[in-house]
């Protein structure tokens, strides 16, 4: 045990999970005969020092707290790790007011400085006295953790947040959307879809048009990712699910209020995917060509790449491998300009898979590109999971 390190997030977690129980009640519970063979008892003095951040727990203490408070040990360990991240960040200086912390947190997210964002959110939790604001900062910490790759921890924190009675009105749909992102990053698409559905049901009456449209498109996109994955694995897309995606896209088209031009292009891209899975392959190709052309005219590079990727995939699925490669090779130089590793990986995986199927000599080059970019991706998308499975099979043979 050490008295020298302050574990503020850990202390907050212990106090939060203790709730209305007194320190004496928790200490008495740890001495209950039924627990004598499982955990080491803990006294009130030790509990108070833990909650004040003046004592770092050892493993025996964590085990006792886990059993008595009914909290997974991993949740406490995550808090301790984040405390240490916060301590390191404090050496370089962190803001001393919640307003400055908020500005610095948003800047860290824009700069993709995820670990700094985690530390700043933890700092916000330290500084605020309001239980509602502390809940907001916990959610902010979870969002940063998800982007740093700690998806399971983010999911656990956000699940707690959306079910917390202290959550302010009008915030629940925002947290469900963040939870959906965390599930998506973890590759849990069905859970992500459920979270987006819940976010849509929690939307307040007066909601920003782009926020509403974004949720509807996220719902449609998740349904279509599942449909695409089913096809790639030799099955067929569930027509009912694809039709649900179509309903969401039609609702997105009808969202009242001003929308930026890129939303229209995004809707058209997803509608093309719906058409493909409903059997109108020729119509889907024409629509995708229009998406690519429109995106090019408007300078929407990411959407142009997405359209070219879908054109390549559509031709490969129709057995036209060489035409597929031609479309995908048009996407490659644009993909290299993107600062979104997941989308870039998808392009190279599709290039590799198509080149492999037609016996193109560039397949090794595309395979190496996938290997190099795999560590940069954030989400465990179907293409990532398929590539990882391919590597495992190759290693086992």
- Give the number of helices: 20
Assign a percent range to the helix content: over 70%
Helices and strands, in order, run as HHHHHHHHHHHHHHHHHHHH
**Biggest pleated sheet:** none
Q: What structural class do the secondary elements suggest?
A: mainly alpha
Got a strand count? Answer: 0
Question: What would the average pLDDT be, to the nearest integer?
Answer: 89
Q: Using only CA atoms, what is the Rg?
A: 25 Å
Alpha carbon gap, first and last residue: 48 Å
Proportion in β-strands: under 5%
| Poorly predicted residue ranges | 1-7
Oligomer: single chain
What coarse outline follows from CA principal-axis ratios?
A: elongated
Describe the model.
The protein is mainly alpha-helical. The chain has 20 helices and no strands. It has helices at 8-18, 23-30, 44-51, 59-69, 73-91, 98-110, 114-127, 131-147, 151-162, 172-185, 189-201, 209-232, 239-253, 261-277, 281-298, 301-317, 321-335, 341-358, 363-374, 382-396. Helix 1 (8-18) packs antiparallel against helix 5 and helix 7 (114-127) runs antiparallel to helix 8 (131-147). The radius of gyration is 25 Å and the shape is elongated. The two termini are 48 Å apart. The model is unreliable at 1-7 (pLDDT under 50).
